[in-house]
Design a protein that fits this description.
The strands form eight sheets. An eight-stranded parallel β-barrel has the order 3-4-8-11-12-13-14-15, surrounded by six helices. With 668 residues, the protein is of the alpha/beta class. The chain folds into three domains: 7-387, TIM Barrel; 394-495 and 626-667, NAD(P)-binding Rossmann-like Domain (Rossmann fold); 504-621, 3-Layer(bba) Sandwich (FAD/NAD(P)-binding domain), CATH 3.50.50. Helix 7 runs parallel beside helix 8, helix 14 runs parallel beside helix 22 (654-667) and helix 19 packs parallel to helix 20 (567-579). The chain is globular. It has 22 helices and 30 strands. Strand 13, helix 8 (288-296) and strand 14 form a beta-alpha-beta unit.
Length: 668
């Protein structure tokens, strides 16, 4: 089965043979593990898992990688199972649960009904076992136990056992996860493989573990399924392999004739370049890794390249240039599960493009929320992680109402869009000259221009859905009474939080970081940025100022800035600050501004510290809700209902705002 794409995407929507299977187009969901199954799934694939991933197949994605199969380890008697970010060393794996094959078969059937293929990933991902006593990943510095021949034999057999289950379930393909903190990566990397036996040494020896695992899988599946590897094109860690060494290892593995495809990305989970590149990186920035092995390998072995490809135009360019045969577009499919169909049908203006904020992977895979509250997440698509609920409850409104949405920030935009789709008449009122709210500010920061894509999508939806947009309009009670809405949604946002009440806080040299981004104020040559904020605002504003040639020092309330930034973005953020000469002082709280002297107290001991010579003090201290209109309206004016939405309720982040706006629209 093939897609009939338009001429602009002729290659992207052409079919391809990968081993024994035919893939109808080149758009792939590479394996990611957001924990989409419901809390009552018992470890099995359920309706929540299925709806999350099959939505992408329904939307035109041809290759569904879904979520990894974490395999079991040979742990010593009495040892606790060890759980880490995104992986674990466990005695009992999901494929061993009764009913597993039946659950997977239902999922595969659902994927096949959409004309897509189901490819599963087999993974040993933990910090308990490794090729040598070297931390698997620099981020955690956890030293693993050195695998013996007995351990290696056990692990190799688990690949074969899991492959048998996949075969019985009707899967189309399998890949061994050989990248990103996995046991195979530990054997492949000269940084983590220091062995002097047959499993370590030169490239041939370091690939033996992978070749043995592939051989055992192939002995089970024969030519009934496609088989490949997911591998890192260059480690980006000290002592790790580079692109040339990567090419040598892949060539050795491919020469066995065991694989049908190589799924490649590039990077490390910590530092630059991350293998889940955020918005600061150009699309397909490390495409040379795909090009290199496409050159090295026979046409029989297909190359799947992944690395911030969020646009079908970029995907088509990669294919036309011979860089790869298939394109991983995982985050593109999270942001908009229907993006492939929209591209094929020429509906590009309706496409909701991924903005590269990384909350989807960085938070849901590696976040700290407990299991009942952990689910897939997208900052710009509130349906993600709620697909089953959405399918059950998204219906036309029983009664069409006139809704006034005040504030065209993320919460207001989603409330207006979804309320209109449900059949309500919406008037969207914005006091500024453009929609976007704080997104307009965020997009001004270096490397964050992709945030504007959400605003382009919203503008197109306002036009497509014929939403009445009032710009440069102050939503006073008098105006609302004149408009006569049935319901009012107050998505009036928040304002920058003023400095704590400290001596000299009202000095002319003190300005808000938001005003600096907006171009409302200027700063001097030496800038002290005082931060009580742990996400991206602090580094983004610091870089914005430093990029203009200013000397910037960040003074932060605790030891380290950016503690809430995901692990895939943090290294890039810190590198950019370093390149711009930004200095940092941690563990201090502002106490006074006295002429050229800025006084701080230690956050730990209370001791005073004084710094001098700064021309400006820039505040980045979060924001406070603007809820006045809501409280004015809710008890004093004759509207059926008044809602409070987004940052006007609680200043949090983009996903919380869009989800709140959407929830209100679903309720009305």
């Amino acid at each position: 089965m093939s897609d009939q794409g338009n001429e602009q995407f002729a290659k992207l929507f052409s079919p391809i043979e990968v081993g024994p299977i035919t893939v109808k187009n080149r758009v792939c969901e590479t394996t990611n593990s957001p924990g989409s199954a419901g809390p009552d799934s018992g470890g099995l694939i359920d309706e929540h898992f299925t709806e999350h991933h099959v939505a992408k197949a329904r939307g035109g994605t041809a290759w569904i990688g879904s979520e990894t199969w974490l395999l079991n380890e040979l742990l010593p008697e009495g040892a606790e199972e060890e759980f880490g970010a995104g992986g674990a060393a466990v005695r009992f794996a999901s494929y061993m649960i009764p009913g597993f094959v039946e659950a997977v078969r239902k999922f595969c059937d659902a994927v096949h009904e959409q004309g897509a293929v189901a490819v599963f990933q087999l993974t040993h991902l933990n910090n308990a076992f490794g090729a040598s006593a070297v931390p698997t990943v620099e981020l955690y510095d956890l030293v693993p136990h050195v695998m013996t021949e007995e351990h290696i034999e056990f692990v190799l057999n688990t690949y074969a056992e899991a492959a048998q289950k996949a075969l019985e379930a009707g899967a189309d393909g399998l890949e061994i996860h050989c990248a990103h903190e996995t046991v195979p990566q530990a054997f492949l990397s000269p940084a983590t493989n220091k062995r002097d036996d047959r499993w370590g040494g030169d490239a041939t020896a370091r690939t033996l573990f992978v070749r043995e695992a592939l051989a055992r899988i192939r002995a089970v599946i024969g030519d009934k399924m496609a088989l490949g590897i997911r591998i890192n094109g260059a480690e980006a860690r000290q002592g790790g392999y580079d692109l040339l060494q990567f090419r040598e290892m892949v060539y050795i593995i491919a020469e066995t004739g065991l694989i049908d495809f190589v799924n490649v990305d590039v990077g490390h989970c910590w530092g630059r370049h991350a293998y889940v590149p955020p918005s600061y990186h150009s699309p397909a920035e490390n495409r040379e890794a795909g090009k290199a092995i496409r050159t090295d390998l026979s046409e029989k072995v297909k190359v799947l390249f992944a690395g911030r490809v969020n646009d079908p135009i970029v995907a088509e360019e990669l294919l036309q240039a011979g860089i790869c045969d298939l394109v991983g577009m995982t985050r593109a499919g999270i942001a908009d599960p229907e993006f492939a169909n929209k591209a094929r049908e020429g509906r590009l203006l309706e496409m909701r493009r991924c903005i590269g904020c990384n909350r989807c992977i960085g938070e849901t895979v590696h976040g700290t929320k407990p299991a009942p509250f952990k689910r897939p997440l997208c900052s710009i698509n509130p349906e993600i992680g709620r697909e089953v609920m959405w399918k059950q409850t998204f219906k036309a409104a029983q009664e069409s109402k006139h809704i006034a949405v005040v504030g065209a920030g993320p919460a207001g935009l989603e409330a207006a869009r979804l309320a209109t789709l449900r059949g309500h008449k919406v008037t969207l009122i914005e006091r500024g000259s453009k929609i976007g709210g704080q997104m307009l500010l965020a997009a001004k920061a270096p490397g964050r221009d992709s945030f504007e894509d959400f605003l382009y999508f919203s503008e197109n939806e306002i036009e497509r859905l014929d939403i009445n947009l009032m710009l440069n309009a102050e939503a006073t009670p008098e105006l609302l009474l004149k408009l006569k809405p049935d319901v009012v949604v107050c998505s009036t946002g928040s304002t920058a939080r003023p400095v704590l009440e400290v001596s000299g806080g009202d000095s002319d040299k003190v300005v808000q970081g938001w005003d600096v981004l907006a171009g409302k104020v200027s700063v001097g040559e030496r800038v002290a940025l005082y931060s009580e904020e742990d996400y991206f605002q602090t580094p983004n504003i610091a870089e914005f100022i430093a990029a203009k040639g200013k000397q910037v020092t960040i003074f932060h309330k605790w030891a380290q800035i950016g503690t809430d930034i995901d692990r895939y973005s943090f290294g890039t953020v810190m590198q950019r600050l370093e390149e711009n000469g930004v200095e940092m002082v941690g563990g201090v709280r502002l106490s006074a501004i006295d002429g050229d002297d800025i006084h701080f107290i230690s956050a730990y001991s209370g001791a005073e510290r004084v710094f001098s010579g700064f021309d400006s003090v820039v505040l980045v201290c979060g924001s406070v809700p603007n809820a006045d209109l809501y409280y004015t309206l809710k008890d004093n004016y004759p509207f059926q209902k008044v809602y409070l939405a987004g940052s006007a309720w609680l200043p949090r982040r983009l996903a919380e705002a869009t989800q709140h706006g959407a929830a209100i629209a679903m309720e009305i």
